[in-house]
Amino acid sequence: MGRTNPTYRDALRAIEERWAEFRRALRRRDQPRFDRLFKYAREHADASGLLNHQNPLLPALFSINLEQEARLDDHEERLEELEQRIAKMNNDRQQPAGEEPTSEPE
To answer: Is the full-model pTM beyond 0.90?
Structure first.
């Protein structure tokens, strides 16, 4: 593949070109989001190319979903860390100065 047969990256580039008019019609704030979706698809182009699917849009959509899942995981981890920090701050505030925190009986 490559010289005579189009690569997956070529197919993805063609898809992006077909969607160019849609992108131009988007609001300015959504255009970078649109671009990010194709960036996600390009990041998984090697794996998508190995799949050699008849419809190159399907592996692109799956690649986008993978990247969005990774972002969700990152956000969930950050949220959990922030919640723990807030809980610790609240506990510290509730403890009078100089007192040791007491542990709950099990």
So the answer is: no
Q: How far, in Å, CA of 95 to CA of 27, rounded?
A: 51
Question: What span, in angstroms and rounded, lies between the C-alpha atoms of 89 and 40?
Answer: 38
Angle between helices 8-18 and 31-43 (to 10 degrees): 170
Spell out the domain ranges in the chain. Answer: 8-93
Angle at which helix 31-43 crosses helix 57-94, to 10 degrees, equals: 110
pLDDT in tens, 12-56: 999 999 999 999 999 999 999 999 999 999 999 999 999 999 999
Q: Is 30 helix (H, G, I), strand (E, B) or coil?
A: coil
- What letter does residue 3 receive in the DSSP assignment? S
**95 vs 40: CA distance, rounded Å:** 47
